[in-house]
């Protein structure tokens, strides 16, 4: 996950300074291997949840931190970015989430 992914402008419906369009900010940037994608209304809800977690200092960013929290048993939810480059750095997370019974 890119740290700039979480740079949200609260209440403006924007990601990285671009307007939120469709299920993702830019469909061209989404890797076709990333499936399933959240619908637009669910995406907004997820981004609000991520913003709240960041405000309460409960957010971990990146594949390494997500893996650590999963292995320690402290993760409650994992959000995967469909525009991660390269996407392969995230592909182990669904397997670990299923082993630990954590929604992703």
Automatic annotation (TrEMBL):
<comment type="similarity">
    <text>Belongs to the eukaryotic ribosomal protein eL8 family.</text>
</comment>
<protein>
    <recommendedName>
        <fullName>H/ACA ribonucleoprotein complex subunit 2</fullName>
    </recommendedName>
</protein>
<dbReference type="InterPro" id="IPR004038">
    <property type="entry name" value="Ribosomal_eL8/eL30/eS12/Gad45"/>
</dbReference>
<dbReference type="Pfam" id="PF01248">
    <property type="entry name" value="Ribosomal_L7Ae"/>
</dbReference>
<dbReference type="GO" id="GO:0031120">
    <property type="term" value="P:snRNA pseudouridine synthesis"/>
</dbReference>
<dbReference type="InterPro" id="IPR018492">
    <property type="entry name" value="Ribosomal_eL8/Nhp2"/>
</dbReference>
<dbReference type="InterPro" id="IPR050257">
    <property type="entry name" value="eL8/uL1-like"/>
</dbReference>
<dbReference type="GO" id="GO:0000398">
    <property type="term" value="P:mRNA splicing, via spliceosome"/>
</dbReference>
<feature type="domain" description="Ribosomal protein eL8/eL30/eS12/Gadd45">
    <location>
        <begin position="46"/>
        <end position="104"/>
    </location>
</feature>
<keyword id="KW-0539">Nucleus</keyword>
<dbReference type="InterPro" id="IPR029064">
    <property type="entry name" value="Ribosomal_eL30-like_sf"/>
</dbReference>
<comment type="function">
    <text>Common component of the spliceosome and rRNA processing machinery.</text>
</comment>
<dbReference type="InterPro" id="IPR002415">
    <property type="entry name" value="H/ACA_rnp_Nhp2-like"/>
</dbReference>
<dbReference type="GO" id="GO:0031429">
    <property type="term" value="C:box H/ACA snoRNP complex"/>
</dbReference>
<keyword id="KW-0687">Ribonucleoprotein</keyword>
<keyword id="KW-0694">RNA-binding</keyword>
<comment type="function">
    <text>Required for ribosome biogenesis. Part of a complex which catalyzes pseudouridylation of rRNA. This involves the isomerization of uridine such that the ribose is subsequently attached to C5, instead of the normal N1. Pseudouridine ('psi') residues may serve to stabilize the conformation of rRNAs.</text>
</comment>
<dbReference type="GO" id="GO:0003723">
    <property type="term" value="F:RNA binding"/>
</dbReference>
């Amino acid at each position: 996950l890119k740290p700039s992914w979480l740079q949200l402008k609260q209440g403006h419906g924007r990601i990285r300074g671009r307007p939120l369009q469709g299920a993702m900010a830019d469909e061209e940037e989404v890797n076709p291997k990333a499936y399933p994608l959240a619908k637009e209304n669910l995406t907004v809800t997820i981004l609000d949840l991520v913003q709240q977690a960041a405000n309460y200092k409960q957010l971990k960013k990146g594949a390494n931190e997500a893996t650590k929290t999963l292995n320690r048993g402290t993760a409650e939810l994992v959000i995967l970015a469909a525009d991660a480059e390269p996407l392969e750095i995230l592909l182990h997370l669904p397997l670990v989430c299923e082993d630990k019974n954590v929604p992703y």
